[in-house]
Design brief:
Blueprint lengths: L19 H9 L4 E3 L2 E8 L5 H12 L3 E7 L4 H13 L7 E5 L3 H6 L8 H8 L4 H6 L1 E2 L2 E2 L2 E7 L1 E5 L10 H13 L6 E2 L6 H13 L16 H14 L13 H9 L5 E4 L2 H9 L7 E4 L14 E8 L6 H11 L2 H11 L29 H4 L3 H9 L10 H11 L8 H18 L5
Parallel strand pairs: 2-3, 2-4, 9-10
Antiparallel strand pairs: 1-2, 4-12, 5-6, 7-12, 8-10, 8-11
């Protein structure tokens, strides 16, 4: 969940590493075909607990014209990308609909693996979508995917320790230092391991400082003053004695567990932590609070990095018209709402953040059996506020290489020398961008 891809609320992110060759062999047994029951469409998508129900709904609506088969990819994001990329690079015609992490769309588009969305399909895919998520599905002004869900981190805290959330990073560090001096839980918990989670934190700081890592067109490295300021903040927060001793090993669920053990005052994490807290410490739930991210500069709202998934139609699909129709169904307003309340993946459609109707509008709201967005997402206003001012990671076909470079150079954050680190990032990111070594 380093990208905030989603996943059932309260379930820790999967760390299962499947064997790529075996996964490809198994997946290769299912191919797109036509039969008496209609066209078979192969959907390749990450594991999501109740997504089969969405697939079933769309198959019912298709009334036999096509049948979507949900091929679950591995839980590891890198494994998911590699399986699809290698098969597409080989011209495999057995892939119809692709579940793409929001950072993969430029790569798949540039490689010619994702079909462009045009005409009525594009209009339907763009209608009502929040700008940040929509940007992740776009490359060079063209739409290559339809947004299925988004995600965004929040600041979580215990109001018995901190009655009000800090407004800025400076405020948060100062509050943590004061709590430490008073012998109270004080750590600022975030993903400091050398992986995508650290890149997400850094990208949020850069965007919140008004900076840029790459140019807007993704063709050159910028690393401006805002990027340097973000390095200064990372250096300060990890050198002030207010982070967990295990910071450099911490991923999302490590952060969640540390907070629940009482080892922190502030937690920067995705919304999945709420249901975990509710399940494991229900007696303390009334004190578990949330807010949008602290700002870098006073009075300038933070710009928090989004995650999520988009749905693309494979360029090798033999059933593109049906694949576009099916993809639109899988991320329809009705199905995004179902996935939100059942699997905890925040919708990309703006209208759902003010939708108070339950899943079955003919029956009363029931938080357990007939939830609404309000009952499933008590923090939805904060999520919506963050999404309206969201940041996306650098859009480039070389993103995977850039992410690897950034996480390596920034680790450990306490060793950052802001200007020297910025210079190193500028040089190494330029090399990575020019090599474009992203296709396996």
């Amino acid at each position: 969940m380093g990208n905030g891809r989603g996943g059932r609320r309260g379930r820790p992110p999967g760390q299962i590493a499947a064997v790529l060759g075996a996964g490809m062999l198994t997946a290769g047994l299912v191919t797109a075909c036509s039969s008496e029951q209609g066209t078979t469409l192969n959907l390749y998508y990450a594991p999501e607990d109740t997504f089969q129900k969405v697939v079933d709904n769309c198959n019912a609506q298709a009334a036999g014209r096509y049948k979507i088969v949900y091929n679950k990819l591995q839980r590891g994001a890198d494994d998911q990308r590699l399986q699809m990329a290698r098969r597409l690079a080989a011209g495999d015609k057995g892939l119809d609909i692709l579940g793409l992490d929001v950072t993969w769309v430029p790569e798949f588009a540039e490689a010619g693996w994702a079909e462009e969305w045009t005409g009525a399909n594009r209009a339907k895919a763009e209608a009502g979508v929040l700008p940040g998520p929509l940007a992740t599905a776009t490359w060079n002004g063209k739409l290559y995917a339809a947004t299925k869900n988004t995600n965004v981190q929040l600041l979580w805290y215990d109001d018995r320790i901190t009655p009000q959330p800090p407004a800025t990073w400076d405020d948060m560090i100062t509050a943590a230092e004061q709590l430490k001096a008073a012998g109270k839980p004080h750590n600022i918990l975030f993903t400091g391991a050398q992986y995508e989670g650290l890149v997400v934190i850094y990208n949020t700081l850069v965007a919140s400082a008004g900076g840029h890592i790459l140019s807007d067109d993704g063709k050159s490295v910028v690393m401006d003053q805002g990027a340097v300021q973000a390095l200064e903040i990372l250096k300060r927060v990890t050198s002030s004695g207010v982070t967990d001793p295990s910071l450099t090993n911490m991923k999302e669920d490590d952060v969640r567990q540390a907070f629940q053990r009482g080892n922190g005052a502030f937690q920067l994490n995705w919304p999945f932590v709420y249901a975990s807290f509710a399940d494991e410490q229900p007696q303390d739930l009334p004190h578990f609070k949330w807010s949008t991210y602290p700002a870098v500069d006073p009075g300038v709202p933070a710009r928090t990095t989004i995650g999520g998934y988009d749905l693309a139609v494979s360029s090798t699909s033999q059933h593109k018209p049906e694949a576009f129709e099916a993809a639109l169904c899988l991320r329809s307003q009705e199905n995004q709402k179902f996935s939100a309340v059942k699997d905890g993946v925040p919708p990309s459609l703006e209208a759902l953040y003010t939708d108070d109707t339950p899943l079955d509008p003919t029956k009363p709201v029931d938080p357990d059996n007939n939830p609404s967005m309000a009952t499933a997402y008590p923090m939805r206003d904060a999520i919506f506020a963050a999404l309206k001012n969201a940041a996306v990671r650098p859009l480039t076909p070389a993103y995977q290489s850039l992410s690897t470079v950034i996480s390596k150079v920034l680790s450990p954050p306490s060793k950052i020398d802001p200007q020297k680190t910025a210079d190193e990032l500028r040089s190494r990111l330029t090399d990575a961008l020019n090599s474009k070594g992203v296709i396996p």
